Amino acid sequence: MDRRQSIKAVARSTAMSGTFQAVLKPEEVLTMDDIAERWASYSGQPQGMAKSHLIGLESFILDQLAKGYRLDFGLVSFYPRLSGGLTSRDADPEAEGLFVRGSVKARRALVNGLKHRLVAENAQATSRVRIYNVFDRETSRYGIVTPGHTLSISGNDIVIDQARDDEGVWLEKRMHVNSRRHSYTKVARGRILKSDTDLAEVVFDEAIPKGTYLLTLYTRSGRGTDFKVIHCRSEVMVK
């Protein structure tokens, strides 16, 4: 029997690219007092002394890093590193925004130690929702939306619960917030004709301005009302 401790893991979906990443489910955070209490129990020290030692260690690490030293504790190492860049060899680092920050690197002993002592246990994963293509059944064209025409959306886990207001198919416009983030504005909601695991049929009844849109499908993929609604998007043209 495997006696290793287990830790919850979930799948995080980046549905636009169709990729998925396993991440650890957030657990309780241990504060300084919690760590001191556990360290005192582990080491046999009084709790007050254990906390004093931890606070002293924190100050010591910051002081040594400020002096430019790298501290290797065996399991982890702390070190100062530069962030930013220079435009030329003679550039002034301070004027160009070059600065020093602290970094932490896990040593091989820590990586291997956790690898053999913990086992990931899958929790309820994010549904692998994905749109493969959008097909206009009346014109036999892909990626083109014509109001009043029936669209066939093929994909994966795209079941839509029409009784829920936050599930369905929308045409959206992507709004640029800044160079790294976008927001999305719903322009038109489609009328669902059919919805199952790998095929949905929808009609946009209202007139829609011509242009490029993102056809976005929102679903819980039949996983229950407590499961967070997720989405996937596919670029289409309205002509």
Tally of alpha and pi helices: 3
N- to C-terminal distance: 62 Å
SSE order in H/E notation? Answer: EEHHEEEHEEEEEEEEEEE
Give the helix proportion (percent range).
10-25%
Shape: elongated
The biggest beta sheet reads: 5 strands, antiparallel
Number of strand segments? 16
Strand content: 35-45%
Strand order of the largest sheet: 8-7-10-14-13
Architecture (CATH level 2) name of the domain at 130-238? Distorted Sandwich
Q: What Rg, in angstroms, do the CA atoms define?
A: 27 Å
Q: What would you call the structural class?
A: alpha+beta
CATH topology of the domain at 130-238: Coagulation Factor XIII, Chain A, domain 1
Which spans of ≥5 residues are poorly predicted at pLDDT below 50?
14-18
CATH class group of the domain at 130-238: Mainly Beta
Q: Give the integer mean of the pLDDT values.
A: 82
